[in-house]
Amino acid sequence: MPDVVEAVNQIVASEGKLPQRIKVDNGSEFISKALDLWAYENKVTMDFSRPGKPTDNPFIESFNGSFRDECLNTNWFLSLDDAQEKIESWRQEYNEYRPHSSLGDITPTEFLTKHKTSPDFLV
């Protein structure tokens, strides 16, 4: 889908480099000719998880569970603006203030800052 390609291009533009590979599930947003062409033209490997095997990418499965349990299931969204505000507030708390055991008990923002200079940062 062009939206995924646009998002990836924005990330690449802000970081100034391409990833070697992108790990994705088999969602329709990742199975598109536009994304496949982008990956081919940029020599980026698309690493698809096996269908029906959420354990191939436990990090996103964990995130999806946390997002649903802690944000989607605990809020009423009265409008699109209200949803954007509440989701953004949850995202900031999740990334900037909450330590994650999978990251050595630091926040994702701290992890990003610590590892941003690594040559394999986007891999």
Q: What descriptors fit this protein?
A:
123 residues, 5 helices, two-stranded parallel ribbon, mainly alpha, globular
Explain the overall architecture:
This protein is mainly alpha-helical and 123 residues long. 52% of the residues lie in helices and 7% in strands. The protein is built from five helices and two strands. The chain has a two-stranded parallel ribbon.
Topology (SSEs and partners):
Elements: H1 2-15, E1 21-24, H2 33-41, E2 45-48, H3 58-72, H4 80-97, H5 108-115
Parallel strand pairs: 1-2
Short description:
By secondary structure, this protein is mostly helical. It has helices at residues 2-15, 33-41, 58-72, 80-97, 108-115; strands spanning 21-24, 45-48.
Structural class: mainly alpha
Average residue-wise pLDDT: 84
Largest sheet: number of strands, sense, barrel closure = 2 strands, parallel
Distance between the termini: 22 Å
- Helix and strand string, N-terminal first? HEHEHHH
Q: What would you report as the Rg, rounded to the nearest angstrom? A: 16 Å
